[in-house]
Amino acid sequence: MPTFEVDDPFWPHLRKMLRAEAYIDTSKVLANNFGGTKAGWMPPSTRVGAVRLLRSWIQAVLLAGHYKVAGQVLWGDDNLWVDQRFSMQIWEKVPKYGEIMILGAGSVGKTYGLAAWNVLDFIVDPLWTSVKVVSVTQKHAEANAFANMSKFLSSSAIPLGMNLTASMLTANPTDKRHGISLIAIPKGDKGVGRLQGMHTVPRPMHPKFGTQSRIRVLMDEAEEIPEGVWKDIDNVLTGKEGTDRIKVMASANPRRREGQFLRRAEPVKGWRDLDLEEDEFWISKQNWAVLRFDGAKCENVVEKKLLYAGLQTWDGYKRYLMMDGSPEYFTMARGAPPPQGSIPTVCSPVILDQARGSYIFVGATTYVSATDLAFTGVDAVVTAIGKYGMANGYKNWDGTVVKFEKQRMVLEVVDVFEMEKKPTEEISADIISNARLMNIDADKLALDRTGNGQGTYDVTKSAYGNILGISFGEKPSKKRILEDDKMSPQDRFHKVNSEMAFAVSYWAEAGFLKFAAKTDVDKWDYEITDRRYVVRSNKIEVESKDNYKARTGRGSPDRADSVGMLLHLVRMRESIRAYILEKNMRTGVEKGYTSEIDQLEGLE
Questions:
Q1: Is the residue at 325 inside a domain?
Q2: Whole-model pTM over 0.90
Q3: How many domains is the chain built from?
Q4: Which of 80, 118, 451, 469 is the most exposed place for a label (fewest CB within 10 A)?
Q5: How many helices (H) and strands (E) does the chain have?
C-alpha cells in the first residue's frame, strides 16, 4: 500500500471523483499521486476491485492516524467541519485518552463530533471493534448519536459495505458482538447489567491492535444515564490497557454537580475554581479527561454571523445572555455546571464536605439508632447508627485536628447500612437485636412508621418499649432546629420530612453533626446534596422520594432519610441544642442567624 502526505492539496478533487462513483479512475489517481505505479502497484480494472482497494486505502489512512483526512475524503468539509473549534478539540483529545467527557453548551456539536470520530475509528477495524451507544431512550438515541453514525456510514463517498439496521451497524451480520449497536435505557430503569459481559476477546494478530478486540462506549446525554450503567462502566474499565483498546466517551449539557457525570468530571480543585473564560480542558479528580465546549467561543457567536449551520448562533446565545446568572445560562450558553445555590437544594456540597470527620469526645457517649423502612418494593431498609456526647474538637478524614473554644454536645453518625428485607416480625426482631447488641435502649431508637411501616413500628414498640415513631407526612415539630432560628419548624416547613432534611444541613453547617469514615458518605452524599425543594405558601417542601427517583434516575434517598431520622430522634428526646452564635445559648436569639430559608420568606 503506497504512503502519502497529509497536506496533499487535492482531497476535494478526490472526493468529487468518488461522489461521481468514478472508483476505477480514483484508484488510478491514488496510484499516480502516492507513488504506487513506481513501486509496481497497479490499480484494479473492475469496479468491485477498485472499491475493495479504496476501502483498504482509507483504512491505511486511518491506521496512520489521519482521521481528519479520511473524514474529508468520505464526507467533505461541509459535513465534518474539520476546522471548526470544537471538532478540532475532538480530533486532538479523543485519541489520546481512554476516558473522556465533553461538557457542552446547547448546539455545539458534541454528539455529532463524537459520532463522526467513532465511525472513523470503527472503519479502521470493523470486524473486531465493538461500539456501544448508550442513551436514555430508544427514540432519543435514534434521533441523535446513533442516527448520525448510521448516516455517516450510509452516505460515505466510498461504499463501506456495512449492514445497517435500526439498532445495529456491522460489517458482519452474523457477528452480534462486534459492530455499532444501540443500548436504550427505558425511563425508570436503573440500568444495572446493561453492559455486563462487555470485555475484549482474542482476535487474529493485528500489526497495530495486537491480539485483542477493541471496545468503545459512547454515552449520549450522559447526565440522564442511570447509576447502574456507570457501575457497569467502572467494570468495563477494569480491563483497560493504555488508551486505545478500551475507550469510554460521555457528553452532556452539565446541570447537576451531584450526578454521576459531573462527579467524574469535577476538576481537582473543585468546581468553585473553574474559570469560565480559560478552562476548556482538564484531568478530573477521578482521572477522566474533560473537554468543555463553551457556547461563547463558538464561531457563530464570536463572529455574530452564521458560519456553521446547526451550531449555536449569536441570536440563540443572546437569549441565554439575558438570563445571565441563571442555571440555563451556565448550562446551555457556557457549557458549565450552574454555581451552587442557583438550583435550590437542601444542602450544599461544601457544607457536607466540612461534616466529614469524627469528634474527639470527652467522657461517656450514648448510642442511638434510626431505621428507614422500605416504603416500596425497590426501596431499601436502611439503619443509621450514631453517638452523642460532649466533645472538645474533631478530626477530619485527612487527619487534621480542630479544637473547639468551648466543649459542646454533638452527634456523630458512625455507620449507615442496609438491612435485609424481611416480613414484619422478622425485620422487627433484627432491629431489636441490633439495638441490644449496641446497648441502645428503646427511647434511643427511632423507626419509620410511614405507610406500610406502621405495622413494623407497632410490633417493635410492643416488644421493645418506648421507641420514637416518625411518619414522614406528619406535621413538623415546634422545636427550633438551631437556637439562632427566628421561626419554628411548624412555621417554616410543610411536613416533618422537610424539617429533618434541613436539620441535617443546619447542624452540619453549625459543626454539631459529623459523618465518620465508616459511613462511606462520600459514596452516597448526593442523596443529601441533590435533594431539591420548593417554597409553597411561604413554607419549604422537600421533593418526595418518588420525584427524586424520577428526576435523578437513582434509587430512593433512604440513607439520607435514615440520618435525618437519627438527628430528629436526638433533637426530640435529648437536651442537645445546636447554634451558630454561642451567645444565643445564654440569652436567647439576640442576633438571629439568617439562613437561606429566612431569606425565602414571602417568596413563592
A1: no
A2: no
A3: 3
A4: 451
A5: 23, 19
- Do 16 and 95 have their domain in common? no
Beta carbons within 8 Å of 143's beta carbon, 6+ residues apart: none
- CA-to-CA dists, residue 492 to 42, 131, 454, 476, 547, angstroms: 84, 52, 26, 9, 21
Task: Look at residue 338 and tell me if it is in a domain.
Answer: no
Residue 591 confidence (pLDDT) above 50: no
- Is residue 46 domain-shared with residue 89, that is, in the same domain? no
In a domain, 315, yes or no: no
pLDDT tens sequence across 40-57: 566 788 889 889 889 988
Looking at 237, 266, 298, the residue that finishes a domain is: 298
Cα angle for residues 348, 350, 356 (degrees, 5° grid): 110
CB 581 within 8 A of CB 511: no
Cβ atoms < 10 Å from Cβ of 375: 19
424-437 helix and 453-464 helix, angle to the nearest 10 degrees: 50
Closest CA to 372 of 547, 100, 558: 558
Specify the 3-state DSSP secondary structure of 597. coil
Residue 579 included in any domain: yes
| Confidence tier at 593 by pLDDT (50, 70, 90) | very low
Q: What is d(CA 216, CA 97) in angstroms, rounded to the nearest whole number?
A: 12
438 has pLDDT over 90: yes
Residue 273: other Cβ atoms inside 10 A: 9
Q: Average pLDDT, stretch 95-111?
A: 95
- The alpha carbon of residue 176 and the mean position of all alpha carbons in its chain are separated, in whole angstroms, by 29
121: helix, coil or strand? helix
User: What pLDDT sits at residue 97?
Assistant: 96
Domain match, 435 and 524 both:
yes
Q: What is the pLDDT of residue 547?
A: 84
Q: What is the spatial distance between Cα 352 and Cα 509, in angstroms, rounded to a whole number?
A: 8
Q: Note whether 54 and 82 are same-domain residues.
A: no
**How is residue 179 written as a grid cell?**
459492530
User: Distance (Å, rounded) from C-alpha 152 to C-alpha 118?
Assistant: 10
- Same domain membership, residue 92 and residue 54: no
- Min mean pLDDT across 330-344, 443-457, 565-579 is at 330-344
Residue 596, classed as helix, strand or coil, is coil
At 374-389, the pLDDT tens digits run 755 567 899 999 999 9
**359: domain range?**
349-600
Neighbour-count burial for 149-187, b at 16+ CB within 10 Å, e otherwise: bbebbeebbbebebeeeeebbbbeeeeeebbbbbbbbee
Q: Using 50, 70 and 90 to split pLDDT, how confident is the model at 445?
A: very high
One domain for residues 132 and 263:
yes
Q: Which of 64, 87, 111 is the last residue of a domain?
A: 64
DSSP string, 313-365: PHHHHHHHHTTTTSHHIIIIIT-SPPPTTSS-BSS-HHHHHHTBEEEEEEEEE
Residue 142, SS3? Answer: helix
